[in-house]
Amino acid sequence: MSLDTAEKQELIATHQVHPTDTGSVEIQVAMLSKRISKLSDHLQGNIHDFASRQGLLKMIGKRKRLLSYIKDKNVQKYQELVKKIGIRG
């Protein structure tokens, strides 16, 4: 469940910190969140796809680590990112 180029460019444009930014933590979290939502939809219909489920759990763990890194560095930026992406109700 990878993202195509147009989706990646859209995510980069909406979350980049400066004009040449392509890999900041904010962008990585946004891309992981999009992949997680796509993979979650896939697993709703394919409940026996255990390999994808394991990949989903790894992505969730990586996103959690990146979010905790942002939270440690700048709490305000963390809250803005969580609100912008729409996670953690």
Classify the helix fraction into a percent range: over 70%
Roughly how many Å is the radius of gyration?
14 Å
The average pLDDT value, as a whole number, equals: 92
Oligomer: single chain
Note the run of SSEs as H and E: HHHH
Shape: globular
The CATH architecture designation is: Orthogonal Bundle
Label the structural class.
mainly alpha
CATH superfamily: S15/NS1, RNA-binding
**The level-1 CATH class:** Mainly Alpha
Number of strands: 0
What is the number of independent domains?
1
The low-confidence parts are none
User: Please, how many helices?
Assistant: 4
- In terms of DSSP E residues, the strand content is under 5%
CATH topology, anyone? Helix Hairpins
Distance linking N and C termini: 24 Å
How is the main sheet built?
A: none
